[in-house]
């Protein structure tokens, strides 16, 4: 890479997108470079010629980490939406159509046109 290293590129990318993952494929076994990469949070440092099984295992591990992070983010977003719905319901800010849409999102439906029973469990926030 002219005028910059892969690690400097990764460092800049991490500032923009902190959740980014990096696997280094290098022709050099320089300890200082590996150490800097580990400090920056690279997932693995593979020296060429790359062992195919190790590369596949590394990619699979990174893929699983990304999927878990995405699932956690979606879970937080879902709980935030539920909290928002409850808040708006308690403040009388949700009309019937929006209420039906929100219930549908949670896998619920209105059993009767004039009432619903809701089981509310308060989560402890830290």
UniProtKB/TrEMBL annotation:
Keyword DNA-binding set for record: yes
Gene3D superfamilies recorded: 3.40.50.2300
Coiled coil: none
Keywords: Cytoplasm, DNA-binding
InterPro entries for the chain: CheY-like_superfamily, HptR, Sig_transdc_resp-reg_receiver
Domain Response regulatory, chain residue ranges per copy: 1-63
Cytoplasm recorded as keyword: yes
A Pfam family recorded for this sequence: Response_reg
Name assigned to this protein: Response regulatory domain-containing protein
Organism, scientific name: Lederbergia galactosidilytica
């Amino acid at each position: 890479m002219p005028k910059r290293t892969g690690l400097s590129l990764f460092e800049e990318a991490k500032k923009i997108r902190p959740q980014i993952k990096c696997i280094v494929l290098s022709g050099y076994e320089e300890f200082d470079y590996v150490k800097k990469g580990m400090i920056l949070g690279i997932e693995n440092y593979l020296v060429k010629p790359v062992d195919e099984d190790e590369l596949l295992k590394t990619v699979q591990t990174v893929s699983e980490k990304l999927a878990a992070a995405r699932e956690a983010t979606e879970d937080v977003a879902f709980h935030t939406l539920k909290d928002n719905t409850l808040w708006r319901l308690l403040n009388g800010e949700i009309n019937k159509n929006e209420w039906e849409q929100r219930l549908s999102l949670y896998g619920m439906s209105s059993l009767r046109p004039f009432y619903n029973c809701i089981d509310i469990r308060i989560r402890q926030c830290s």
